[in-house]
């Protein structure tokens, strides 16, 4: 399995679990929660950049 | 990279592409500006970049209004289409018996019990769940609670104070469910090995016939029967 295949799964899982754990207010601090929330936010910020890139580079050929 | 002779078919109309871009951008901005309120300890750096909490909250409200307007325009567009043009958009989006059999077939295939993947129509059951979760969680629950929280003094005249406070918890709680759903949508649509790093189908609305035959064979068969693709 290629690194990129597992990387996507790790990022999404870590981030999702962090959001869910933090929302329960049982675990609201700690390096893993902070890392997960920050990665999730960076992923969201990155996806805005990716959307703008996709919008500018992809062209519609059909009428 | 698509070859020169490769044929493409329309997967999303121009209006669907525009609605996705406007809706997605506003939802993402809502996450960026909303979560620092729930998690100031971990995400306090975001309002600092955005020149403080008042400006962050202003951006949050503008993005919320844009999202609600996008939802309203989409509802009006598809209602008018269904009445006057009779476009079969809903036929592809509404849940069907096949979706339930596809779920079972998918689970069997994932665990190695089933021999082949189910043949999806235009939208798979996962894509339909994605659409419904955005409509119910982001559009209805977060939309209504967001409007109430945006104008608290107006709604305090008709809603008791304890309910007003519960709307705050509902808004924050469902935002978490929404972001987790969107993170999995990122994986399914863009970060999975087949599409990594980005799937441009949602930006230009076109899909190669070869890819469509692999991912949505039932849809290709349908449009071939209708004579759209020869």
Overview of this structure, please?
The complex is a heterodimer of chains A (63) and B (230). By secondary structure, chain A is mainly α. Chain A has one domain. In chain A, 78% of the residues lie in helices and 0% in strands. Chain A contains two helices and no strands. Chain A has helices at 3-24, 31-57. In chain A, helix 1 (3-24) crosses helix 2. Chain A is elongated. The relative contact order of chain A is 0.11. The mean pLDDT of chain A is 76. Chain B has 230 residues and is mostly helical. Chain B has one domain: Fumarate Reductase Cytochrome B subunit (Up-down Bundle), CATH 1.20.950. Chain B is 73% helix and 3% strand. Chain B has twelve helices and two strands. In chain B, strands 1-2 form a two-stranded antiparallel ribbon. The two termini of chain B are 23 Å apart. At the A-B interface, helix 1 and helix 2 of A face strand 1, helix 1, helix 2, helix 9 and helix 10 of B.
Q: What features would you highlight for this structure?
A:
heterodimer; A: 63 residues; mainly alpha; 2 helices; 78% helix; B: 230 residues; Fumarate Reductase Cytochrome B subunit; two-stranded antiparallel ribbon; 12 helices; globular
SSE arrangement:
The complex is a heterodimer of chains A (63) and B (230).
Chain A: H1 3-24, H2 31-57
Helix pairs in contact in A: 1-2
Chain B: E1 8-10, H1 14-38, H2 40-43, H3 45-49, H4 53-85, H5 89-93, H6 97-110, H7 125-150, H8 152-155, H9 161-191, H10 201-204, E2 206-208, H11 209-215, H12 217-225
Antiparallel strand pairs in B: 1-2
């Amino acid at each position: 399995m290629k690194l990129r295949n597992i990387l996507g799964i790790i990022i999404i899982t870590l981030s999702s679990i962090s959001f869910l754990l933090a929302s329960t207010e049982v675990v609201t601090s700690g390096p893993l929660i902070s890392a997960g929330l920050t990665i999730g936010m960076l992923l969201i910020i990155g996806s805005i950049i990716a959307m703008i890139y996709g919008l500018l580079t992809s062209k519609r050929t059909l009428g | 990279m698509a070859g020169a002779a490769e044929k493409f078919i329309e997967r999303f109309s121009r209006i669907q592409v525009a609605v996705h871009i406007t809706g997605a951008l506003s939802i993402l901005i809502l996450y960026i500006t909303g979560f620092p309120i729930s998690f100031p300890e971990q995400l306090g750096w975001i309002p600092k970049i955005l020149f403080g909490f008042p400006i962050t909250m202003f951006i949050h409200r503008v993005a919320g209004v844009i999202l609600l307007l996008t939802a309203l325009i989409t509802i009006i567009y598809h209602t008018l289409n269904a009445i006057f043009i009779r476009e079969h958009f809903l036929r592809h989006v509404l849940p069907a018996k096949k979706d339930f059999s596809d779920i079972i077939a998918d689970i069997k295939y994932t665990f190695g019990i089933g021999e082949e993947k189910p043949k999806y129509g235009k939208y798979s059951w996962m894509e339909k769940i994605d659409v419904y979760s955005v409509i119910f969680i982001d559009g209805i629950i977060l939309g209504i609670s967001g409007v109430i929280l945006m104008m608290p003094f107006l709604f305090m005249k008709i809603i008791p104070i304890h309910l007003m406070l519960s709307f705050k918890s509902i808004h924050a709680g469902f935002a978490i469910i929404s972001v987790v759903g969107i993170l999995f949508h990122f994986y399914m649509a863009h970060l999975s090995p087949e599409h990594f790093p980005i799937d441009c189908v949602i930006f230009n609305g076109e899909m190669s016939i070869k890819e469509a035959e692999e991912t949505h064979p039932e849809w290709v068969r349908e449009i071939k029967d209708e004579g759209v693709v020869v």
